[in-house]
């Protein structure tokens, strides 16, 4: 089964700088969901491009029914994507962050903020690409098994059938009688004879003057 | 020589086939081809055990149909003849052969509509003729008057009312199905009693009728057929009978006779027959 990622709007990375450094070391990427929907997140997948550390903050709706109380919480703090920020290892790998790795429950998330850090000055640019967000699939609701279905396997026949009529014959006759009744019932027509009297007396409302 | 004679009598050649006309023209004029074709089709459809008798009845009915030959006797006789013919049509196919049964019902209905104006009303067949026909169907199906009476009460139409085709078909089907049902209930009683001479035990009869009632009362969507058939499977029936016997050790001598059983079974069927209104 192919699960499609949730539609999301990934904003352009915003750099955070103090003063006039040559190159920013922190980028922030915000991800919104269209129509303002709140999503229950299962997994975030992305392709790294020379980002060393990733922090994930989410904006959660406390009460989906009310339009107030939104809270920013940190879901993932400084996940190390590159073992050595100055080396190539892990610089262009694919990563997947599952909800179990998160610090908080990823229910009713309206915005995700990815904070990318790259302390090394060796790289001209860093970012993450191909961000895909997958939401939780619905749990299968338990289907009630009807009683009669669970009773279909024949019970062990007790030896008390001595002197009783042959159940095969009896059952066969009953089945035919049941089938005949069903035939009669299923061929009922709704056509009426259009009687004017109800139980022998005329129903005033059914009589007409014309 | 035949040709010469024919050319000498041009005026009368079209009116009546003379002795000299060719065989094809004779058959064509009398419509014999169509007659035989209809008879053979009916024979193939019905597959009677006595083909000769069937063909004799078929041609007899066709000959005495109104407009085909001299009418016999007065109106009363004609009505009886119509009824007889309609009943004959309805007996040709068993109700399980649904399309044949439906077409025979249509033919019977049209036959009754063709009769004298006293037999039909503006909307259909007269109630009196309809009731007579149903009574005839029940008798032919082997039902006694007492057994058929409750069914006829539910399907009854007043004498002056006009019965439309759908109602006619439903009632005819109900009568033949009920006749089969009663026959099956007699077979069921024989199976429950285990012995043709001795009556069946009351508790067993009640258990058996109870399982049938439960199956009939199963409601729901399309899965109810599966559910109902699970209730009347052989092991369920055996279980019900064994439980009934073990519950009633003391009154094991009480019996139910065949007529009471048949009436109780018929009641289950009749309760589901729609009253004509």
TrEMBL record, chain A:
PANTHER family: NICOLIN 1, NICOLIN-1. The gene is NICN1. InterPro entries: Nicolin-1 (IPR040235). This is Nicolin-1. It comes from Denticeps clupeoides. GO terms for cellular component: nucleoplasm.
TrEMBL record, chain B:
Residues 78-274 form the Tubulin polyglutamylase complex subunit 1-like C-terminal domain. Pfam families: TPGS1_C (PF24480). GO terms for molecular function: microtubule binding. Residues 1-24 are annotated as: Disordered. This is Tubulin polyglutamylase complex subunit 1-like C-terminal domain-containing protein. It comes from Denticeps clupeoides.
């Amino acid at each position: 089964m192919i699960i499609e990622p949730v539609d999301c709007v990934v904003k352009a990375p915003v750099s955070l700088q103090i003063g006039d450094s040559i190159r920013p070391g922190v980028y922030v990427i915000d991800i919104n969901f269209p129509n303002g929907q709140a999503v229950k997140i299962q997994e975030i997948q992305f392709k790294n491009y020379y980002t060393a550390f990733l922090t994930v903050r989410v904006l959660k709706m406390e009460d989906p029914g009310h339009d107030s109380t939104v809270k920013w919480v940190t879901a993932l703090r400084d996940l190390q994507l590159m073992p050595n920020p100055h080396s190539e290892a892990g610089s262009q790998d694919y990563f997947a962050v599952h909800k179990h790795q998160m610090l908080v429950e990823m229910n009713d998330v309206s915005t995700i903020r990815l904070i990318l850090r790259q302390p090394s000055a060796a790289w001209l640019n860093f970012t993450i690409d191909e961000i895909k967000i997958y939401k939780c699939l619905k749990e299968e609701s338990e289907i009630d098994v009807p009683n009669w279905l669970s009773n279909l396997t024949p019970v062990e026949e007790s030896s008390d059938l001595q002197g009783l009529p042959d159940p095969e014959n009896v059952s066969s006759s009953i089945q035919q009688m049941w089938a005949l009744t069903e035939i009669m019932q299923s061929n009922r027509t709704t056509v009426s004879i259009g009687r004017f009297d109800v139980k022998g007396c005329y129903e005033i409302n059914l009589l007409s003057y014309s | 020589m035949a040709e010469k004679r024919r050319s000498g009598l041009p005026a009368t050649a079209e009116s009546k086939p003379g002795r000299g006309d060719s065989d094809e023209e004779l058959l064509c004029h009398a419509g014999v081809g169509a007659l035989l074709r209809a008879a053979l089709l009916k024979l193939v459809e019905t597959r009677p055990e006595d083909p000769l008798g069937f063909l004799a009845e078929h041609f007899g009915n066709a000959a005495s149909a109104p407009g085909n030959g001299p009418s016999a006797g007065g109106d009363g006789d004609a009505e009886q003849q119509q009824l007889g013919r309609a009943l004959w049509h309805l007996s040709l196919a068993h109700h399980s052969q649904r399309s044949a049964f439906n077409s025979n019902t249509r033919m019977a209905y049209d036959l009754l509509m063709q009769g004298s104006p006293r037999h039909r009303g503006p909307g259909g067949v007269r109630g009196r003729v309809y009731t007579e026909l149903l009574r005839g169907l029940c008798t032919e199906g082997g039902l006694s008057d007492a057994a058929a009476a409750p069914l006829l009460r539910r399907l009854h139409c007043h004498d002056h009312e006009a019965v439309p085709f759908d109602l006619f078909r439903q009632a005819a089907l109900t009568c033949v199905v009920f006749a089969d049902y009663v026959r099956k209930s007699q077979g069921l009683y024989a199976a429950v009693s285990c012995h043709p001479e001795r009556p069946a035990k009351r508790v067993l009869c009640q258990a058996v009728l109870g399982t049938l009632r439960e199956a009939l009362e199963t409601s729901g969507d399309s899965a109810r057929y599966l559910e109902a058939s699970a209730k009347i499977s052989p092991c369920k029936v055996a279980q019900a009978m064994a439980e009934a016997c073990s519950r009633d050790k003391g009154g094991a001598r009480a019996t139910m006779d065949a007529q009471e059983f048949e009436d109780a079974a018929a009641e289950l069927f009749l309760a589901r027959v729609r009253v004509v209104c």
